[in-house]
Amino acid sequence: MSHTAHIPSHRKPRRSASKLALRAGVAGGVLGTIAVAGAAGPANAEPVTETIEMPTLNADLSADLSSAVAASAEATQRIALDQELQAQEDAAAAKAAKEAKTAKAEAERKAEAEEAQRKAEAKARADAAAEAAERASRSSERTTLSASAGSSSSSDEDGGGSSYDSGQATGSAAAIVAFARAQVGDAYVMGSTGPNSWDCSGLVQAAYRQAGIELPRVSGDQSSRGTSVSLDNLQPGDILYWGSRSNSYHVAIYVGGGMFVGAQNPETGVVERSLDYDRPSGAVRVL
To answer: φ and ψ at 184, to 5 degrees?
Structure first.
C-alpha cells in the first residue's frame, strides 16, 4: 500500500468549533436536541457528530397540565369572589345592626316624649278643673256675701245696725271686707282690675264698689280720700296706704282683727296678712 494512501485516523480529532442547537416544544412537552459538530484539525479529517436527545412530554400529559392550571386559576378566582361576597355580607349586617340600634333608640326617645306630654296634659287638665272648681266656689261665695252685705246695709239705714269694732265688720264695711277676702289667692297683675287678677288699687276700687262707693283708680288718689285715722284706731273697711298720703305707692283694706287684705306683688298675689307683716304708713276712712 502506498504510503500516501488515505488511512482514517483512529485518534479522536480535536474540535476547533462547536455548534449547539436547542429546540423546545410548548403545551407541556419539551423536545431538545443538542448537536455538536466538530471539525478535525487537518483539513482532510472526517467530522465526528454526537447527538443528545432530551425527554419529551407527550400530548396527553400536556393537556392534563393545561387543565390543572386552568382549574387552579378558576378555584383561586372562586375563592376571591367568595371572600368578597362574605365581606359585603358582613358590612351589610353591621350596617343593619347599627340602623336597628339607632331606630330603637329613636323609638324609645319618642315614646318617652309622648309619655311626658301625656302626663303634662293630664296635669294641666287636672289643674284647670281644680281652678275652675275654686273659681266657681269663690263666685258662689261672692254672691252670698254680697246679698248678706246688702241686707246688713239696709238694716243700718233703718237704724238697726251695730257700730264698728276691731273684729266684726257690719253694713257697707262688711260688703267691702267680704269682697276683698273672696279674692285671696288671685294673681297680682299690674294694671289689672279683675275679675281674677288685680293690682293693689284695682282691688280696693272694686271692693268699695260693692258698697256703692266709687274711688279713684290709682293708690295716691285713693289715699287722699276721706279722713286720716290712727293705726291704733282702725275699723274694718279702712284704706291702708304705704308712702305719704298724697303720694302713696301701695294700698290695701283693713279687714279687722289686726289683719289686712291686699294685692301685694306678682310673687304672693292677693293675700291676707297681719299688719306686722308689712306695717303701713297710715290709713284713711272713707265710710
So the answer is: -55, 130
